[in-house]
Every structure is written in structure tokens, then in C-alpha cells.
Amino acid sequence: MAPVRRLVVDVLKPHEPPLVEFTEQLSDLEGIDGVTSSLVELDKEVQNVKLTFEGESVDHDTIQATVETLGGTVHSVDEVSCGTRVVEDRKTPQD
Q: Which domains does the chain have, with CATH numbers?
């Protein structure tokens, strides 16, 4: 099976740990070359965050388990790229 190279997930997390620390811990996972986190929405008790993972072998189960260990919940998988390289999304006539 082709390895996952990019995974974008929607996460609901508490305010602690702070977003920088949360992202740093996720970037330390095996197979991850980098993580980008974007704050989507903030309320009194939680943050809704979009996380983009890239690497040679991104493992969804490990990411989900780590997010849960840090107090968060993966709400959805919004994008997946598999294969020997990441193919960027481009507009098509159907768009």
C-alpha cells in the first residue's frame, strides 16, 4: 500500500497545552517531517484547529492517539495524499 504523505485533520482541543506546544509534540512523531496548525475558531473552553501533517509515512492512528493523549479529539479527516509524491489540488472544469 502507498504511504500517506499528507494528512489534514480537523481537531477540537482544550486551551492547554498551548497551540505551539501541541504542534511541537505532534511534529516529534515518527514519519512526520512537519506540521502546520491553524486556529479556525476559539471559544471560552476549546479551540478548533486545522492540522496539516507531511512526511515520508504519516500514520493516522498514531496521530489520533497522540491528539487524544494531549486532550483533543479528531473531528474529521479533510485531506489525504498518498504515493511517492504529494499531488497538489488544482482546479478542474468541474470546479
A: 24-78 (3.30.70.1340)
User: Measuring CA to CA, which residue among 72, 67, 76, 64 is closest to residue 15?
Assistant: 72
CA distances in angstroms from 35 to 45, 58, 87, listed in the order given:
24, 11, 17
Residues 27/14, Cβ–Cβ less than 8 Å: no
Query: pLDDT digit string (tens) for 45-70?
Result: 999 999 999 999 999 999 999 999 99
Could you give the CA distance from residue 83 to residue 47 in angstroms, rounded to a whole number?
A: 32
pTM: 0.91
